[in-house]
Design goal:
3-stranded parallel beta sheet
């Protein structure tokens, strides 16, 4: 088995060309399993740090993330995701306001469900 590792995409703020780089490398090395090691989505607007006023906010970031994740989903439909600290920001914020973090669904399900269902 040849495993390809993807890390820190921070979508929607991903480095231009990163997807194509991963695809090229995984093809060259005949990768047959892909693991994303965390920080799939940035969740900047939900961060405990001060938000950048020029960015779109929570809803805009979610919308952009869903759109920008489509090519990743198409390229790696069986990707395994390991949650990173940015991936867990929504769960930490839910805990902060007294809501059970279990409410937070699987990240791929949240971001990919609308893509699969054509919404």
């Amino acid at each position: 088995m040849r495993v390809g590792i993807i890390g820190d995409t921070h979508i929607p703020f991903c480095l231009d060309g990163y997807l194509e780089f991963c695809q090229e490398q995984f093809k060259a090395w005949k990768v047959n399993r892909v693991i994303h090691i965390g920080d799939l989505v940035d969740h900047h607007a939900l961060s405990f740090h001060d938000s950048e006023p020029s960015l779109k906010g929570v809803d805009g970031e979610l919308t952009d993330a869903r759109t920008l994740l489509q090519p990743w989903y198409d390229a790696f439909p069986k990707l395994t995701l390991v949650n990173g600290n940015h991936d867990l920001i929504p769960a930490r914020q839910l805990t902060k306001i007294g809501m059970d973090a279990e409410v937070w669904m699987n990240l791929l399900e949240i971001y990919m469900s609308s893509l699969r269902d054509g919404i």
